[in-house]
Amino acid sequence: MPDKQKLVESITSMDADFAQWYTDVVIKSELAGYSGVRGCMIIRPYGTALWENIRNDLDGRFKATGHENIMMPLFIPESLLQKEKDHVEGFAPEVAWVTHGGSELLAERLCVRPTSETVFCDHYAQIIHSWRDLPKLYNQWCSVVRWEKTTRPFLRTTEFYWQEGHTMHETAQEAWDETERMLGVYADFAEQSLAIPVIKGRKTDREKFAGAEATYTIEAMMHDGKALQSGTSHYFGDGFARAFDIQFTGRDNTLQYPHQTSWGLSTRIIGAIIMTHGDDSGLVMPPRVAPVQVMIVPVAMHKEGVLEKAEELRERLSKACRVKLDVSDYSPGWKFAEYEMKGVPLRLEIGPKDIEKNQCVLVRRDSREKVFVPLDQLETTVPELLEAVQQGLFDKALARRESMTYTVTDWAQMCRTAAEKPGLVKAMWCGGEACEQKLKDEAGVTSRCMPFEQEKVGEACVCCGGAAEKMVIWGKAY
RNA sequence: CGGGAUGUGGCGCAGUUUGGUAGCGCACUUGGUUUGGGACCAAGGGGCCGCAGGUUCAAAUCCUGUCAUCCCGACCA
Is A9 a residue whose pLDDT tops 60? Predict the structure, then answer.
């Protein structure tokens, strides 16, 4: 099996070096490449196609919940960024500044947006005057820049693509509802479309977004047991509205401040797909967002009728799924390995032997299970198998998360578990910042979230033994 | 910002110890034979060795500086 050996060598194995496996997969599956600027990735056609599918799916969910798309400017004047104190403190250290236009020094420098709360607020101040102008439910798809010191493809990059929703509401309750609704949209999207099980919860004050009153999050567990914050939804109250002087006349003819939310999900989610479903052969794409759902590999394609039959199947299947036919002159074996690397959920092999029997071979990427299918059943079998892969990926990811999630009740157990077992830990917390800090410093874990679905896993705070307020998910995070 | 590693055709590397006309594998191009798990044969093309100084008759190799990338930590999506 010399070829098998070669295959194994082509990417680092997950167990040997997970970080290296990750970058190998990103590069070799052609999702992305490096550019001349640190942290600025070239998202290659395969990665772009994946992002487009993610984007279309999410965009549909936003539209279905009444949101409209808008496009805001790339540059933010320094004075605007500085209007909200907590916000600027959070972001100032990592903004990129434009100081010159051509060779002229600008009177006021401009930052390249790290996020767009401030420009949205500036605009809202212009257009919101009456309760009849509310709510405003806006979203934009764009890229933003945060000058990160260390970067990793998709997980942390200097420039990244995302969507940011920014909404304004008449009442606090409406804004709270929106915050929660959009987190629900993210959670459904992650679980249904990406087959990534997530935990919905609230961030502690220490972990929340700069300038927010509350941050909700969906947290996913990666293959190595580390957590990845995969989408966030923030409640701002009227803090920004006050800072930006956004006021409207209410139903009772008094001047009021609107209540605000924002929510975002970025290309980081591609990192989540890779690290949730991938294996030693490379990517495994969830069928719902896979750029190619079925790859047809003709065998002995120079032989009479093979290409014609393959093309006929492609044509037929194109009505039911995203299908491609590879007629390049690489060997079939090369193609098998290549599309496994790229995570194509289903492979269809068709060769002279199949044509004789009026069948083809379908191979699942997740289980490698191989089935022979009569050609006249393709239109029903392929969607069924795609659905089975989608479900299989979710079930497997959920089972892994559960097997790597531990419940602990006392400090010694917490330290031992955090040190010895990769994964997440459920433990009670008193709500004190000192305990949160101690857990980080001494146990090496941070709070990932306070799940909406609370369980009572102990009586007292795992750290200080005081009265416990919340069950918290702790872990190491990306 | 700390710790570690690495920069040599597109990719992966050897060559650096001991200075002396840049090599290998893969990929690429052309022709032919092949095709059910990364095919084979033959003939080709491509690199001032990250960058800038210095030492020397002579630098990929020695010295100084610098830049970049990757990995591990601290901070952020």
Answer: no
Q: Which nucleotide is nearest to A217 (CA to C1')?
A: B77
Domains by residue range for chain A, with CATH: 2-277 (3.30.930.10), 294-385 (3.40.50.800), 405-475 (3.30.110.30)
Count of other CB atoms within 10 angstroms of residue A96: 14
A385-397 pLDDT tens trace: 999 999 999 999 9
Query: In terms of pTM, does the model score above 0.90?
Result: yes
> Tens digit of pLDDT for each residue in A419-464?
888 999 999 999 999 999 999 988 989 999 999 999 999 999 999 9
Nucleotide showing the shortest C1' distance to residue A349 CA = B36
Which bases of strand B have any atom within 7 Å of the beta carbon of a protein residue?
A: 1-2, 34-39, 68-77
Q: Do residues A134 and A170 make contact, with C-beta atoms less than 8 angstroms apart?
A: yes
ipTM: 0.82
